[in-house]
Structures are given as C-alpha cells and as structure tokens.
Amino acid sequence: MGVYRDLVRVPGVLNVTASQLFARLPMGMLNLAILLHVQSTSGSFAVAGLVVAALSVGEAVAMPVTARLAGRFGRVPTLLVTAVVNGAGMLGLALTRSPTALLMVLGVLIGASVPPLLPVVRALYPQMVPRDIVRALFALDTTAQELIWVVGPIAATFLATVVSTAAPLVLSAGVTILGTCWFLLGARRFKPITANSTSSFGKVLRSRAVLLAVAASAALVASFMALEVGIIADLGGGLVAGVAIAVGSAGSLVGGLVFGHRRLGIAGVVGALTVVALGTALFGVADSLPLQFMALFFSGSGFAPALSVLYIMVSQETAEDAASEAFGWLTSAALVGGALGTAVAGVATDAYGSTGAIVVSVTLAVMAAVSPLVARATGPLRGLEEPTSETCKQGGA
C-alpha cells in the first residue's frame, strides 16, 4: 500500500482528485432527486420516470461530444459553460411546475450539459504523476467514486424529507458549479489538454482498447444495475436492501484499494470480472441474509479493480489528443449499460421473480469477463500485458 503514500505526496493530486469527486457528487443525487421532486409536483411516477429517462438519454448522447470539445478547445471554457448551463437547468427544474414536455426538455438539457469531468480528469491523470504510479491514481479514482453513490442518495432523500423536494436540485446546482471551479483552480498547474488533431468525431472507437473498454464496462455496469433490481426484488425496497447494496459498494472500495493499483494482466482482469459473476451467483443461491451480504461483498471486490485496468488500458492505448473523447465514450457506455441492465432485469423479475434478475446479472458479468479474452485474441494490448516478476514487485509496493 506504500504506492498510495507516494501518490498523495505528489503536489496537486489530492486537490484535483477531491475536487472532481465533489463536483460529480450530484451524479449520485440527480436521478433520485428528480424522481422525488417531479413526482411530488406532478403527482405522477410515470412523468417523473420520463424526466429521469430524458436526463439519461441527454447525458449518454452528449458526453462524448462535450468530452471532445474539452480536448479540442480546452477544459476551462468547456467545463465552465457546461457547469453553468447544468446548474441553470437544475434550478429551472426545481422551480418549474410545467407540462410534461417542458419537464422532459429540462431533463435532456440537464443530462446533455453534465460537465465532462470524468473524461477530462482521466485524460489528465497520466500528466499528473510519474509513470510508475499512474496506475495507482486510476485505482484511487475508481475506488473513491463509490462514495458518490453512497453519499448522494442519502443526501437527496434527507433534504427532500427535511427541507423540500426542490432542495436536492438546488444543492446539486451549487455543488456542480462550485466543484467545477474548484477543480479548474486545482488543475491549473497542469498542462491544458487541447488537440490539434483533425480526426473525425468517433474515430477513437476504431481502437481495440476503447472498444474493449466500452463493451466490458457497459456489460459490467449493466450487471451491477441488474443485481440492484434482484436485491430489491428479493429483500424488498426498505433499509435492508439499501444496506445490501452498500455492502457491495464496500466490497468494491476494498477491492479497489487492495488490487486496483496492481498490474493484473489479462488473467487478473478476467479473474476480477469472474469474481463479480461468481459473487452474484452466490447471492442468488444463498439461503440467509449474512451469506447474501458476504456474497455481495465478494462480488463487489472485483468491480473497481476491473474498471481500473480498463481505464489504464485506454489511457495507454489512446493518443493524448483523443483521450478525453475516449473516456467520454466510456461514460456513455456505462450509462447505456446501466439503463439496459435495469430494463432487462425488470422484465425478467416480472416473469421469474428475483431469480430472473440474478440470472440476467450473472450473464452480463460473464459477458464482461469473456470480452478481454476475445480482444486479446486479436493482438496484444499494453494495458493487459502479463505482469513480470519486476512489475509484480512494483505493484505490490
């Protein structure tokens, strides 16, 4: 774990990492905040669901575009403009009790203007630290982002209950703008990422590394979201289900800290993804709550390490002027995967109960585990090279 000590000693690392996580905190609040607010003002869960869906569509479509703009014109103008528009959209939704069509337009606007912080910061990481610890920085980021999904829902429900349903949206607007400014101030010491490339939009998807990461991360996130449906169907929608989901996130935190910085190689990343599938299957057959919690912790322990390897692979295999766009596509893939996983698991649950959702989740996790083997069969990828004895020593530092 000494590698993390070396990491935090690098000037600017903690500031940049903390600021971008703070600015992205609304991502853990928005879906629930919008659902609660729109349902409260319209009286319809269907309308609220449509607005949440509109947000997801807007973000999935726009993220590669705004990430490319950040790479071409610079992070400062892109992030400032999107943060202001995003905050204004959230305030507009908080204050609006308009027809469904206008609410959906606001949902699309909010989603489309989400600042591309994740692709920008992951494109920036290789410039921030020495080459031998950049893997640890990706692992730290991937692991720490779990906090967004722990703190966000709690904050949203607390404010909606104690203050008003508009309060989480107002808070999200402020956090987005202030957090983005904090990140830009902290990142100003690092070289701006601007691209002189004239390559066409989407060309980065011709990279085998990017395609693998898109496919694997989409399947992995879809598996996680399908598992959430299965947990709720099996344990109900109360506190026990919430704790169960948190246990899985805790497993991801631990797995990311222990294994995320290591040079896993193709066998390691396939193993991490297999752990996700096996843990999910064990949850489905466990006959007591303690065993189910253990299975979820085990399943989660493979999540962050696998994503960390995929991110470092894209960083190594993608040109600097295309890195922001590449990570933008990864974000979109995760959004689409999550939506599809939830939808398919919902249908399976209606037909077969919680078992249907678990089967869907396991199947998607197996697909994620197989994808690196398929990609590796077509040629080597630097992010998936097998570790040598020397790199093993470095990884275990």
Structural features, described:
This protein is mostly helical. It has two domains: 1-133 and 146-189, Up-down Bundle (Growth Hormone, Chain: A), CATH 1.20.1250; 204-397, Up-down Bundle (Growth Hormone, Chain: A), CATH 1.20.1250.20. The chain has 18 helices and no strands. The radius of gyration is 20 Å and the shape is globular.
Write the topology of this structure:
Blueprint: H1 2-8, H2 13-23, H3 30-42, H4 45-73, H5 75-95, H6 100-112, H7 117-128, H8 134-144, H9 146-162, H10 167-187, H11 208-235, H12 239-259, H13 265-285, H14 289-300, H15 303-317, H16 320-352, H17 354-377, H18 389-395
Strand percentage: under 5%
Total separate domains: 2
CATH topology of the largest domain: Growth Hormone, Chain: A
Overall, the morphology is globular
CATH architecture of the largest domain: Up-down Bundle
Q: Helices and strands, in N-to-C order?
A: HHHHHHHHHHHHHHHHHH
Poorly predicted parts: 389-397
Task: Give the N-terminus to C-terminus distance in angstroms.
Answer: 6 Å
**Helical residue percent band:** over 70%
Average per-residue pLDDT, rounded, comes to 83
Radius of gyration over C-alpha positions, nearest whole angstrom: 20 Å
